[in-house]
Write a structure and sequence with these properties.
Helices cover 10% and strands 45% of the residues. The longest helix is centred in the first third of the chain and has 18 residues. It is elongated and about 85 Å long. By secondary structure, the chain is mainly β. Strand 3 and strand 4 form a beta hairpin.
Length: 188
């Protein structure tokens, strides 16, 4: 059987959907057990902020040191038992203790996410996943580092630096005593 050029082109066109189906769908890279990320956040209803995120899965905590625009430095210490401390330091320091009922994200929190293909964001070609109509997660195709994540409430987080293995020293995030002189309230 001899195929002419038009027959070959027809076979290729017919095979394209099948070949695309056979391509492997990327899997999101789990977060490292420890990292530090400097992030820029645009909170649609609450302005701009820069945050240092210190994720420490073995210690069961996720710490954010947040500088909101023209505001006091805010510490947000989240624990794996679902308790979060939000506090400022100084003589006018404040503290809110909230129990969310869920702990910090597991390193593989994107398991089961839906792959949406590749997109350019912040100058990077990224794989994009969506999970539970709540989070859209962009990961650099080449380095597998997180680049950005968006939430359904309009918050957009852009990763400026990402240091695998970095650890925050404990004395820097000990909640002040006035955090323990109040009731915890549940949220969610």
């Amino acid at each position: 059987m001899r195929l002419n050029l038009s027959s070959i082109i027809s076979l290729i066109i017919l095979a394209l959907p099948w070949l695309q189906f056979c391509e492997t769908v990327p899997v999101p890279t789990p977060w490292p057990e420890r990292f530090h990320a400097l992030t820029y956040k645009n909170l649609s209803s609450d302005g701009l902020q820069i945050a240092h995120q210190w994720y420490d899965w073995p210690r069961g905590r996720n710490v954010y040191i947040i500088q909101k625009q023209l505001s006091d430095l805010l510490y947000n210490v989240e624990w794996n038992n679902g308790t979060s401390f939000y506090y400022t330091l100084g003589e006018n320091g404040s503290c809110d203790v909230v129990h969310y009922g869920i702990g910090i994200p597991r390193p593989d929190f994107l398991d089961g996410a839906t792959y949406l293909g590749t997109r350019f964001t912040d100058g990077f070609l990224c794989n994009l996943w969506e999970k539970l109509d709540f989070i859209w997660y962009y990961e650099d195709v080449q380095t597998k580092k997180p680049v950005r994540w968006d939430f359904s409430d309009g918050i957009s987080v852009h990763v400026m630096t990402f240091e695998v293995g970095a650890v925050l020293h404990d004395p820097l995030i000990q909640a002040p005593s006035y955090c323990f002189n109040q009731d915890t309230y549940a949220k969610g």
